[in-house]
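*Target chain*
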Amino acid sequence: MLDPLKSGLVTNMARPGSNLTGIALDAGIEIWGKRLEMLKEAVPSTANAAFLGMRDGWDGSSGQFLRDASARLGISLISIIPNIGTLAEIERIFAEMMLKKPDAVLVSGEGDLYAHRKLIVELAERNAYQ
């Protein structure tokens, strides 16, 4: 959990000195549709996107919400699901993703993926994904 004092967001919990009232780590499944909408607004030519997430997220209600939003926005969406969350597996799925040539990649913040976020960013930058 993020500690507002240690992170420097506030200097004192009794008198935070700013308008910070809370941080939502889980904004609900609607956030996936909003992320796709923002992507489409920022890069209108986006026609193909990849979702990098774990199986439970893709198969569950979040994944369905994302698939519905992509259909509504006219974005073809593919899922890239790692078998396990190791560094080697993440490198393997990025190599697989390069063959499918998506215009963009949406990354879930699930456990192992979050733990390897630096590698994911490096691979995305190396492959010019936005």
Remarks:
- The helical segments are 4-7, 30-42, 55-59, 61-73, 87-100, 111-115, 117-126.
- The beta strands are 48-52, 76-80, 104-107.
- The longest strand covers residues 48-52.
